[in-house]
């Protein structure tokens, strides 16, 4: 097995380098599908959230970024403005009602309204299986990951209704389809977002307000640093992903830009699995019958889950 992994290393490295050079560069984005739109993106000062804010801005939207820490907001706003994008920012802890109110008022005052909400914030304060989770950790996970997503959507709704239509996107995870063994409660919270998407989309469809969800696979963020601990771990991880590489944040942002644009005007209530699919074999050797909901990237969590889950949990608490 390891000989096979080693023999594919050169090809995998070539693929990764090519993608890093060419993937979704700002100069390659010619579409301006979001001109005249205003977008609010939570937890958007780094990683997937930052990439989404950047891409929506490149597509012509005016963007409000936010984070729990003001210094992170200031840095992100400066970087995005330096890139020529029309951006503003404000500190917002999504579990704080006053912060949420200030976030939406800031967007309306600065840019005149809100057309798009991207709910990206999440936490995971505790490692372990779902039935091992403490009540306090369970409450915090569901308060931020689920309840706050619902509250953000509900509180943004009056502003979106004023625009006679708009779009809401929840950022979930492949863990919502195939739970991670050491991120049990977190995985369940991400599954809940699928139901929230379905229910809200049905209620709002007649008002021309679309609600969709994105479930990213393994993405090259700080979290993915655990996958680079050794050459063996790195190649083992990549061998489980059909495309031979980890996703870049800009690949998630491109999907989001599509979903909130008029190109997706007839799409609502959907969860987009942003990860290459393959058949995953269970630990006891049988083929997973739900292959359409299984990815090569998810299976690696059974191999290095103790490394990834620990780092993932720490990073979510720091975001």
Automatic annotation (TrEMBL):
Pfam families the UniProt entry points to = adh_short_C2
An example Gene Ontology molecular-function term: carbonyl reductase (NADPH) activity
Record's keyword terms, sorted: Oxidoreductase
Read off the InterPro entries from this record: NAD(P)-bd_dom_sf, Sc_DH/Rdtase_CS, SDR_fam
Q: Which family does it belong to?
A: Belongs to the short-chain dehydrogenases/reductases (SDR) family.
Protein name (database record)? Dehydrogenase/reductase SDR family member 4
């Amino acid at each position: 097995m390891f000989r096979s992994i080693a023999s594919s290393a050169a090809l995998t490295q070539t693929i990764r380098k090519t993608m890093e050079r060419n993937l979704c560069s700002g100069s390659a984005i010619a579409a301006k599908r979001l001109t005249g739109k205003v977008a609010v993106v939570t937890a958007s000062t780094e990683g997937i959230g930052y990439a989404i804010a950047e891409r929506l801005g490149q597509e012509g939207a005016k963007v409000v970024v936010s984070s729990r820490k003001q210094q992170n907001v200031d840095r992100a706003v400066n970087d995005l403005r330096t890139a020529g994008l029309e951006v503003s920012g404000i500190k917002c802890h999504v579990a704080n009602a006053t912060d949420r109110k200030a976030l939406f008022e800031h967007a309306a005052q600065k840019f005149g309204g809100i057309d798009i909400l991207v709910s990206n914030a999440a936490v995971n304060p505790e490692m372990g299986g779902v039935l091992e989770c403490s009540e306090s950790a369970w409450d915090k996970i569901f308060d931020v990951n689920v309840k706050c997503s619902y509250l953000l959507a509900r509180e943004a709704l009056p502003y979106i209704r004023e625009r006679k239509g708009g779009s809401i996107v929840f950022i979930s995870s492949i863990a919502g389809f195939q739970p991670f063994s050491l991120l049990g409660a977190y995985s369940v919270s991400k599954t809940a977002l699928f139901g929230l998407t379905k229910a809200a989309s049905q209620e709002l469809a007649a008002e021309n307000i679309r609600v969709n969800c994105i479930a990213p696979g393994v993405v090259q963020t700080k979290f993915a640093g655990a996958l680079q601990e050794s050459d063996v771990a790195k190649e083992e991880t990549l061998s489980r992903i059909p495309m031979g590489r980890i996703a870049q944040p800009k690949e998630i942002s491109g999907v989001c830009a599509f979903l909130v644009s008029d190109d997706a005007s007839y799409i609502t209530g959907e969860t987009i699995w942003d990860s290459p699919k393959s058949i995953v074999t269970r630990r006891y050797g049988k083929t997973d019958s739900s292959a359409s909901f299984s990815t090569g990237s998810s299976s690696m969590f059974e191999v290095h889950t103790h490394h990834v889950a620990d780092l993932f949990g720490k990073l979510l608490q720091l975001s």
